[in-house]
Q: What sequence folds into this?
């Protein structure tokens, strides 16, 4: 086991609606909720930040802007396509926060930072 927890953001309907409405390539097929949530980014956080619901809520409040921008950038790198008002309420309207505290490393080799 490693001394981290993970956070995964699952897209809700308003986020998927934005993905499709903001698409600069009109005529492209619509992204479904299933497609949007198929392969999600996993964010490593400290075990302490995932100790309980209150600790996780504090961590989300402190980091939601970074997470929000990372998710938006994953779809469209053109910031003018992003919603201008990105507050904590909108974050929770767009994302379901999933947290897991038991992380098993089954590979057995050192973890390398790809420096991406």
A:
């Amino acid at each position: 086991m490693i001394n981290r927890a993970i956070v995964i953001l699952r897209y809700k309907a308003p986020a998927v609606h934005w993905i499709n409405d903001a698409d600069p390539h009109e005529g492209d097929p619509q992204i479904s909720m299933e497609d949007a949530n198929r392969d999600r980014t996993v964010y490593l956080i400290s075990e302490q930040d995932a100790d309980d619901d209150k600790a996780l809520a504090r961590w989300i409040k402190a980091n939601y802007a970074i997470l929000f921008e990372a998710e938006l950038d994953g779809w469209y790198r053109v910031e003018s396509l992003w919603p201008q008002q990105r507050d904590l309420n909108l974050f929770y309207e767009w994302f379901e926060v999933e947290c897991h505290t038991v992380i098993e490393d089954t590979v057995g080799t050192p973890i390398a930072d790809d420096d991406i």
